[in-house]
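Re: the request from the purification team.
They wanted to know what the chain is likely to look like in 3D before they choose a buffer screen. I agreed to run a prediction and write the result into the notebook, where they can find it.
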Amino acid sequence: MTAIDTIRTQDWQAIFSDDEKSLAIGGLESGNVVLLPELAFSLADNEEFILRDPILSPKRKNISYNSLTQQLGGVADDYCNNDTLKAFMARYAKAAQQLVCALLPRYCDSLEIGRTSYRPAEIAGRASSPRKDDTRLHVDAFPSSPVAGKRILRVFCNINPWHQPRVWHLGESFRQVADRFMPLISRPMSLQTGLMKLLHITKGKRTPYDHYMLHIHDKMKCDETYQENVGKQRAEFLPGSTWMVYTDLVSHAALSGSHLLEQTFYVPVSAMQNEALTPLRQLEAMCHRPLV
């Protein structure tokens, strides 16, 4: 089962000891969650509306922020160009990047910043198709955004104003997941992946790695027997806590909670302390061939 490694700080610009850095990188790459239970992200007085106003578009489940373009997505019409909301999201993105560079300095030079998201809506009870239902155990893979083996590192922070935890399930190891589902997945067709890129269905070419990861994601979520019977553990992340995890490696499901901040980073396999533990290298070992 997935372990939770705890590191204590209240400062987003903390200086960490060598032991803390070693614990963090070793734990993350092994498939653990790194929890900073006292690391809260505070809101300024002029940002309090973010917790109470209907800023989320009715048709969306998350608000996104692109640090490169400084554009918001998923917001209600009245907040599309809200400078305070943009500054709030940018501030979290910067804080998360500073945290990763301080705690995981090995990654800092090759870190690629992805989307920032704010998730004000309650997860529990939300209608969704099985493939889009994040309350089901899964590993992350993106249909339209192939990563070509790059790791998906995410930094979460619970800012729920009503003292409600973010509740997760954590499932079996990636190798157990791959052993279970890889035999059910056919080999990718190169012509199809090239055509998807040409037609802009995907933002880049879907590599064999992306093909397998996406099918693992879908088969996990759509297998009712698996979801009911696989071993899992409950984890509660309290308001005022921050945690980070490789969501491409760790089988996880978000069961309940609202008002969550999340920052995605992409990290190349070459930056890893132990490449053999990455999903890419594990799947390549199973397939006996390169997948990117």
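For the purification team: The chain has one domain: 4-287.
Please add any questions underneath this entry.
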